[in-house]
UniProtKB/TrEMBL annotation:
Source organism per UniProt: Zhongshania guokunii
Protein name: Nitric oxide-sensing protein NosP
TM stretches of this protein: none
Family annotation (SMART domains): FIST, FIST_C
Highest taxon above the source species: Bacteria
Annotated FIST domain residues: 47-248
Length: 399
């Protein structure tokens, strides 16, 4: 760690703080207790509405949880484990990062959906409607156009599509943005954080009303190729494709991508993406892993009959920069970008030698977030995207 990084990570008066509405920070200290303390120091403000953090799965979760609970007290603290972090210093790993929203500009309602294995659409709908009523009674600005929802889901729950559909219906036009928790590509140990403890098989919902301008963004840099693969045999409950074009899925994927079976790994999946076409739009369907029977497990929904399109790189860095320039033209320079960035984008950036360029761009636009096992945008669970909320400056409202 260089001197500038140490000064940032250890100073409560860091020059990287954004002002009264939002503060952000983090720590790459491997000790959970010390990392939590450094995060707390960087987020300190007079009237916090809530704190949201994203942390490496390698931290001792019990120590981290206990320390955060002690430091932040009654302040709502929400978070999740990651497949990589995005801090004020750019793309990070082995770290914790987060942000604090001021009660002067944000009011927040939160909820935990437990036991997603027996998820109830009606229960989730009622939970969100209750949150909306409570938020409306305390709102700082008109609800419909000045509110958004954030979601954090256990990335190994295989329940995103069901949960997001129910939440989106209940939100009645309020945008929903979020990400699926990761665990550094181990695929066994993903958690969300709520009410001073970590949970698996659960989802955190955060409903926010604000006097700040904001803009939701979600998109990817991929361009469609011509070759198609039809899912001819699948297990949708497990997101497994057994056959593509009536051939063993892994073998047919390798043929189309012109790679060998021995090359199948996270880097290959990131560099050789697939997508589903809906109208004129393409939505990526990222592969999680190859199985012993040569089937492929996906991060997103897959089913028999789905047609997958081979995709190619359209310029990851340039596409993100163009999107951010459009947002800045609309709402001004961001105080914060809450970022949910697919793990395959990070792997692709590493593989193509543009990691530092992307990291610098995230730092420039004040992105704080994490690398996900899937991104959430309204009712959609997608892959290979950058999805997020850009927080602009505050305005005056009469409610």
């Amino acid at each position: 760690m260089n001197t500038a990084e140490k000064q940032y990570l250890n100073s409560a008066d860091s020059a990287l703080r954004t002002g009264p509405a939002v503060r952000y920070g983090g720590s790459d200290n491997p000790n959970a207790v010390e990392a939590a303390q450094e995060l707390f120091n960087s987020l300190l403000m007079a009237r916090p509405a809530c704190v949201i953090f994203f942390c490496c799965v390698d931290y001792d979760r019990e120590q981290l949880s206990d320390t955060l609970a002690t430091l932040f007290g009654d302040v709502p603290v929400l978070g999740c484990t990651t497949a990589g972090e995005i801090s004020p210093l750019g793309l990070s790993a082995g770290s914790i990062t987060g942000f604090c929203l001021s009660a002067d500009h944000f009011v927040v309602e939160t909820a935990l959906l437990k036991n997603l294995a027996s998820f109830s659409e009606r229960g989730a709908y009622d939970t969100v409607k209750g949150m909306m009523r409570r938020l409306d009674s305390r709102s700082l600005a008109p609800m419909l156009y000045n509110s958004f929802a954030l979601s954090l889901l256990d990335g190994m729950s295989i329940r995103e599509e069901l949960v997001l559909s129910a939440l989106n219906e209940a939100l009645s036009g309020i945008p929903l943005v979020g990400g699926s928790a990761g665990d550094n590509l181990h695929f066994r140990d993903t958690h969300v954080y709520y009410d001073k403890q970590f949970f698996s098989n659960a989802a955190v919902i955060i409903l926010i009303n604000t006097t700040c301008s904001f803009s939701v963004l979600s998109g990817h840099h991929l361009v469609s190729d011509f070759e198609k693969l039809v899912v001819t045999k699948a297990d949708p409950a497990k997101r497994i494709a057994h056959e593509l074009n009536a051939e063993p899925a892994a073998l047919e994927y390798c043929r189309v991508m012109d790679i060998s079976l021995d090359e199948l790994n996270s880097a290959s999946y990131a560099l050789h993406p697939l997508s589903v076409q809906v109208g004129e739009n393409f939505f990526a369907r990222s592969i999680q892993q190859v199985n012993d029977d040569l089937s492929l497990t996906f991060f997103c929904a897959i089913d028999t009959g789905i047609v997958l399109t081979k995709m190619r790189d359209g310029g990851l860095v340039a596409e993100f920069e163009q999107r951010m320039e459009s947002v800045v033209a609309e709402i001004g320079e961001p105080q914060l970008v809450i970022g949910y960035d697919c793990i395959h984008r990070r792997i692709e950036a590493e593989g193509k030698g543009i990691y530092e360029e992307l990291s610098t761009l995230y730092q420039r636009y004040k992105v704080v977030g994490f690398n996900t096992y899937g991104e959430h945008c309204d009712a959609m669970h997608v892959n290979h995207t950058f999805t997020g909320v850009v927080i602009g400056e505050a305005s005056e409202f009469s409610v």
